[in-house]
Design a protein that fits this description.
By secondary structure, the chain is an alpha+beta fold. The chain folds into two domains: about 250 residues, BirA Bifunctional Protein, domain 2 (2-Layer Sandwich), CATH 3.30.930.10; about 90 residues, Anticodon-binding domain (Rossmann fold, 3-Layer(aba) Sandwich). Helices cover about 40% and strands about 20% of the residues. Strands 1-5-6-11-10-9-7-8 form an eight-stranded mixed β-sheet, sandwiched between helices. A hairpin with a 5-residue loop joins strand 3 and strand 4. Helix 1 runs antiparallel to helix 5, helix 1 packs across helix 12 and helix 5 packs parallel to helix 10. It is elongated and about 90 Å long. The two termini are about 50 Å apart. The model has no long low-confidence stretch (mean pLDDT about 95). The structure holds adenosine-5'-triphosphate and magnesium ion. Adenosine-5'-triphosphate (ATP) binds next to strand 6, strand 10, strand 11 and helix 12.
Length: about 425
Amino acid sequence: MSFQAPKGTFDWMPPRSERVLAVRDALSAPARRAGYGYIETPAFEDTGLFSRGVGESTDIVTKEMYTFVDKGGRSITLRPEGTASVVRAVLEHGLPGGPLPVKLWYSGSYYRYERAQKGRYRHFSQVGAEAIGTEDPAVDAELIVLAVDGYAALGLTGVRLLLNSLGCAECRPAYRAALQDFLRGLDLDEQTRQRIEINPLRVLDDKRPEVQAQLAGAPLVTDHLCGACKAYHEEVRTLLTAAGVTYTDDPRLVRGLDYYTRTTFEFLHDGLGSQSAVGGGGRYDGLSEMIGGPPLPSVGWALGVDRTVLAMEAEGLFDAQPATVDVFAVPLGEEARRAVFGLVVALRRAGLSADMAFGGRGVKGAMKAADRSGARFALILGDRDLAAGAVQVKDLTTAEQTAVPIAEVADVLKGKLS
Ligand code: ATP
Ligand code: MG
């Protein structure tokens, strides 16, 4: 019997998996430089955290959660997103009593029972950042700039930023009512009609062309913002422009989660087909109260690691075959094998990346392994070299070969590699 990864999941395997690490590092680096601390929360939570924190009317809660009863009779859900867990942790640890905002970043696996296709998986990975407890347009702008800088650090040029404001508890109800009036007059299926009553903004997010076609004349949230929301949004836009960030105002941008207020944004990449969102986020002033906390106006984003790798591949931003090590050592004979093992250990301890031929292969097989490793240098050690206390250093790009005393090989290689 043989097994495959479950439907909608896949394995990142070397060397391509290096790209995942590179993307995770680059997307989180700007936040770390901006004072965001690292948070790690469990991969599962009480189901109620997500049904309340993400929202009963969202696709995530109605269709996409991996929920099960554990052996202690608790309803548990594999986390479909990161924000609810982060806010839960911040409340649980009493952080709102200290300096605000609490700025945190995270990275990990998320689980959604989705229709699997390219760029849409049931297990995927995100880098996220949240600034909790402060209402200040500069925080919203900071987060957006951090994401923009992360994509730029990866060399991506095709990422577009869409920006909108969803209003607040003051102005959203009137907009909601106007939108409901409009939507009730459309020709929609029963499920969508129900959605009009529960969360009409989500209808704007419906991706079906027959629905989108009817939405052309829908009232726009930006025409219904109160004075405070308008001024807030204007300030976010001004700060972004001053930071050199290009964006497109999209008054139809709503997002899949119920808790968003005011600033909402999404990053798109056109090289990905229909799964074009590489990241998104926004302000969620009401979330803390929804999960039993005090009012904590907050803003954050989550960037999709898998889709960002795909976007980079679409832009041809990766080397075909990244080198795994700088140096690959080949022993010729049993005694040489012991010496090579010691030499490789010493090189690694000296800070070089080094590997060796294992498994007692012949010279030909071992040299092939050296070539395949992508290493710059091969170290070849035979019994005669051993007697002379030297090792052959072969530059695999030029095929040039020189004998170097074993005691000096680490320094010589460091010099050549720097
Ligand atoms: P979409 O509209 O594509 O379903 P979303 O609004 O559900 O995206 P978010 O919850 O905002 O996505 O998650 C942030 C980012 O995480 C997305 O922009 C995307 O890059 C990534 N992401 C979300 N769901 C998946 C998935 N099923 N597979 C791979 N990446 C995903
Ligand atoms: Mg989704």
